[in-house]
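Protein details
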Amino acid sequence: MSDRIDPLGEAGLAFYSKVSASISHEIKNSLAVLNESAGYLEDVTLMAKKGMNVNMERLESLAGTMLKQVQRSNAIVNNMNRLAHSLDDPASQIDLNPLLELMISLSERTTVTRGFKVSAASSDAAVTITTHPFFLENLIWLILDFAMTVTGDAKTIAMLPLKTESGVAINFTGLEKLTKRALYDFQTEPVRRILSILNGTLQADEDKGIITLNLPEKTNKQGGLS
């Protein structure tokens, strides 16, 4: 029996692990703020019991801070839930607009820490395909990680979903240092396996600094889905 870890599974675990670590860190940050706020409320309660004056404006501000952190934590957990459920169905119809927004949120801590800004230009109409959501999310994560090595000095990456004759495309723009050789080297075995499952292809436009991920309207199950 071979001890070699399947590269596809390894890539998926690495992706899930990094996202989970990022999410847990963000939740801990929110909990720290809530804990500090709870400590202040406890102090205020003791002051009130002793008949001391309470700063109502400070309390109002504190309540707003706590509510904001609860909403932030709820959004983080919802994103994690969406990622977890992307493994439910290997052939789901998805709209690329909300999926790209999800990927921006999931990768935000990584991109911001490295000094990059990632955005998505949502189209007016839904850009839908039937594909494996988790593998597509994994691939977008990997492309963003690679894209951060070939951007210009502005350190900005924009993603744009488009309808095409054969399906859809996602353009990753702002990659002034992109070369076809670099994109070729990026396509390691895990990347090639994911592309095969999605029946997708990657193209580099060196002049415009764009990577294009081409995807069919419906993934062929023979390409890896079952």
The chain has two domains: 7-85, 92-223. The mean pLDDT is 89. Strands lie at 92-95, 117-120, 128-131, 156-163, 167-173, 201-205, 210-216.
